[in-house]
Structure formats: structure tokens, C-alpha cells
Amino acid sequence: xxxxxxxxxxxxxSEGTPVLLRCNYxxxxxxxxxxxxxxxxxxxxxxxxxxxxxxxVKGINGFEAEFKKxxxxxxxxxxxxxxSDAAEYFCVVSxxxxxxxxxxxxxxxxx
Amino acid sequence: KAGVTQTPRYLIKTRGxxxxxSCSPISGHRSVSWYQQTPGQGLxxxxxxxxxxxxxxxxxxxxxxxxxxSNSRSEMNVSTLELGDSALYLCASSLPTGQVxxxxxxxxxxxxxxxx
Lengths: 111, 116
Prior knowledge:
The complex is a heterodimer of chains A (111) and B (116). Chain A is an all-beta fold. Chain A has strands at residues 3-6, 10-14, 19-21, 23-26, 32-38, 44-50, 56-58, 64-68, 73-78, 87-94, 99-101, 105-110. Chain A is globular, with a radius of gyration of 13 Å. By secondary structure, chain B is mainly β. Chain B has no helices and eleven strands. In chain B, strands 2, 4, 5, 6, 9, 10 and 11 form a seven-stranded mixed beta sheet that branches. Chain B is globular, with a radius of gyration of 13 Å.
């Protein structure tokens, strides 16, 4: 059965420091994996998507994620946090007939 | 290109009533999916429509239904509202290029439903 676990419900980092948002998944098939971001009172916006073409996926706004099959992980990183990165982030796993969202990680940026 | 639009943005209903939410996809997108977002359960997939047919369905009771029109616009209906139906309902559209749930989806801002 499919599942996705975001290991931290809240993460706080100082502006200019690296960001790491952790995601582990399980899937019976070769899944598609996504990271979406949701700013307050806004819909979700795609940050990046893994589709088996490359294990290191680069997304928008300087974010990237690495697919590690042996660890069943798809962690999201950014080298230097910006105040505008404060939002909620969702890791998503899907296959042909199911799509599962993680519970979300709220990222706080400290000045 | 205009994004996904949802109407209304906010809605207040009472228990037992029914409600209809509307979603207009990005021009050219033929698939529309619906999601429910609550603090307790997070984001959950309701159903997906393509070419006026429901192709995928999540684990929600039959009180939740939807339809899609020939212009790809979609409506979601919830009958006999319960307090637990209070949520943000998000609609997303995609082209799609293949199996829609593995495609990139573009989300609308959502409809905030409050059931009293």
C-alpha cells in the first residue's frame, strides 16, 4: 500500500541558512513523487516532480530533491532560505490510480 | 493564461443542507481533480474527472459527488452536510499527458466551506 510520511510537522531555520524537509514514502510500484508548496490562503503550487529521469530533481525557487530508492526518501532541500519561503510544504506520492499527500511541514524562517 | 478558478471562495451552510462548488480549469486542460483539506486529515483526494467521466475516486461517502461538463468545467456536490465537512475544497486541473494522478496538477485557491 502507498503511504507518505513527512517526518517533521514544523521546521524553523534562519534566513540564509540551508533548508531540509524530510519525506519518506512507500509504494508497491515505481511512483511519481512531488513536492508542493502552499502559501497562506493560496492553492498549492508545484515545486518539483520526480519521474525516474534523474534522481536529483531541480525545482523552482532554488529548491531541489533527491530520490533515494534504497532509503525510500525524497527529501527537499534549499541551500539558503529566504523569508518568502515561509509556507507549508507537502510531499506527494502517486501512481496510476492513487495519490497520497503527506501531512505537511510548516517552514518558519527566522530573521 | 488564466489559472484555475473556484467559486465561491467562501461558503457557510448549516447541517443537513447541500452545497455545490464550481471549478473552471486552465484553458486546454481536460482533467479536473477535487481534494478536501482539513487540519485533522490533511489533504485527501476526492475524485477526478476526464472527458465528463469519473476516472478515479478516493474513499469518501456517496454524499460527495461531482460532474464535469463538455467545456471541462466541473462541479462538486455535497449533500446532507455534516459538521465534519467543514474544510477547504481544492480543485486542480491537468492536461493530462497520461495517467492524470502522475501528471503535474495546477491548483485553484480553494473554496472554504463552513458547516454550522
